[in-house]
Amino acid sequence: MIGQSLGHYRIEAKLGEGGTGLVYRAFDTHLDRPVAIKILRADVTTNPERKRRFVQEAKAASALNHPNIIHIYDISSSGDTDFIAMEFVAGKTLHQLIGKNGLPLRETLKYSIQIADALACAHSAGIVHRDLKPANIIVGEDGRVKLLDFGLAKLTDRTVDAAGDSEADTATMIAREDVQTEEGVIVGTVAYMSPEQAEGKKVDARSDIFSLGSVLYEMVTGRRPFEGANKISTLSAILHEEPPPLAEVASDLPAELGKIIWRCLRKNPERRAQHAGDIKLALEELTEDSASGKLSHASQAASQAAPEEQHALMRKLFGSPADRPYRLWKILHINMFLRCALLVYLAWRFKNVTSGTWSLLLFFSIVFCSTIQSIIAAVLLLAEAMGTEFLLGETRKFAPWLRVFGLGNSALAMIMAVWIAEGHTILAALIAFVGIAIGITALTIKPAMDRAAIYASNR
What we know:
alpha+beta, Transferase(Phosphotransferase), domain 1
């Protein structure tokens, strides 16, 4: 599509891809401004339901006039291509901004207030988003948040004012039969669904508030509140489990923020926060208290006794239960590096007490395998700085090589140990011990830690 034109829109670059279409940056040749163009994918044009949602997204978003909701300029088609022209925002999605440790408190409050305000506007117009998640929230270069993707939005049951108030008029811009989903059908993104949405029940504005709580939790911790090895286990967690307490995942957060998040994440909609505007107000008050220095990060631990302080110290040293698998994974790779260095030293001692070509060959083979193992371990330790997806890809790429060189080191160490077992028993035992440890780590412990800390994690 790049370089082609759709009507008076000239496609310039691809921005992303969603469930129903692809998004491009384009230029409006009529008004001389950049726009974002969402194009319905060719493989779903034959699906009436998905095409209906594509049109619904444009109508739902265009029914709302709010600075934190993306502006829709046009919905049209060119030939066989259906597309939506919308406001172009130069920035990054919240998903891209959230690191493994979450966002700073100041940024979290700044963005979440705008998100809550956008939801309050949509809810007041009788529109429930139903797919609120970090990937559907973009933060512009000026710090302004924009709520995207109303493809799953629906109207709630509302009483239309007989006098014809503006909110009722806005809501009627979308035909009710076009946006409601039958009870029993699950739509949305699993990790951010409310319990009632996960069960396929009818949802209202309080479902978006639950999703807002999930987004808030991820913003401050870097982790999703409900996570499982697959979609089924994630749904089960949403329905039956509570997320790890904030004090364990991010102990330096103010207790007031934790209370706001728990009000959003209550399973029972009746006990959950009822209005997004209330959440916005609570976040604004928290921001004011934070700016005035009234908040104390020790408020969560003020009433705890000395044993609890010891637990806090242990968390600082070894990490929270939620982060522990990854911390242990890092320690494992550091130990792998140290064991390789020790094995090279022992191989040098072996070379000094033996002679011959085979002795030198064993020594340099150990040096080679240990060097490669150490380099790979260092690469994986540094890969995290490039992002979670990069770390996952590098782990998958190098895991087999770590196993090969680890087993190679182990076999070479056993050969050296047998060689000098009679004359140098202690040295032989040390070489054998280090070699066995490296082999067991490469064959069993390393794959298990990869599964626990990398593959099965939503870090």
